[in-house]
Amino acid sequence: MAVDVEVQQLIRRPPAEVAAFVMDPANDHTWIRALSEVRVLTDGPVGPGTQVARSARFLGRTLEYVNEIVEYEPPHRLAMRSVKAPFPMTVRYSFEPAGAGTRVVVGAGGEPGRFYGLARPLLEVAMRRAIGGDLERLRSVLEA
């Protein structure tokens, strides 16, 4: 059974500035807490087809995965899909004007497979908590 979560955060910075920061893999360590390593695997500017390898801790396990950018529309949208991961997943980011700032919406979903599928309800709670914490760190960094 698939999991799908969505989390929002308001950040008091312009959408283009927020999107540029989030869409640059070099900034991932700054705001995504679980990451221990981030490496861009492809040459050239970031865009569709860019692959990024990451190591992260999630639910007490170290995960190694590679995401590929499948949608890249600065400053509006970014979507990535797993090309190597413990379970196939898609992550979607959108950046919408909201008053004097930006509403960042992050959605993540996929098929968790056998190990994670057994704990699907806990997985959704953990994903929502992790994404929410990351967005709060992003807000802190960009509003500082």
**Order of strands in the sheet with most strands:** 1-7-6-5-4-3-2
Give the CATH superfamily: START domain
Number of domains: 1
What would CATH call the class? Alpha Beta
Mean pLDDT across all amino acids: 91
Total DSSP E strands = 7
Based on the structure given, which CATH architecture is correct?
A: 2-Layer Sandwich
**Main β-sheet: number of strands, strand sense, barrel status?**
7 strands, antiparallel
Summed up, the helix count is: 4
Alpha-carbon Rg, integer: 15 Å
Query: Structural class, judged by helices and strands?
Result: alpha+beta
Distance between the termini: 40 Å
Q: Using the coordinates shown, work out and report the CATH topology.
A: Alpha-D-Glucose-1,6-Bisphosphate, Chain A, domain 4
Q: pLDDT under 50 segments (min length 5)? A: none
Helix content: 25-40%
Q: How do the helices and strands follow one another from N- to C-terminus? A: EHHEEEEEEHH
Beta-strand proportion: 35-45%
* Coarse morphology: globular
Task: Describe the protein's topology.
Elements: E1 3-11, H1 15-22, H2 28-31, E2 35-40, E3 51-58, E4 61-73, E5 77-84, E6 89-98, E7 101-110, H3 113-117, H4 120-143
Antiparallel strand pairs: 1-7, 2-3, 3-4, 4-5, 5-6, 6-7
Structural commentary:
- The longest helix has 24 residues, at 120-143.
- The radius of gyration is 15 Å and the shape is globular.
- Strand 5 (77-84) and strand 6 (89-98) form a beta hairpin.
- Helices cover 28% and strands 44% of the residues.
- It has one domain: Alpha-D-Glucose-1,6-Bisphosphate, Chain A, domain 4, CATH 3.30.530.
- The protein has a seven-stranded antiparallel sheet.
- 18% of the residues are buried.
- The N and C termini lie far apart (40 Å).
- With 144 residues, the protein is α+β, with helices and mostly antiparallel strands.
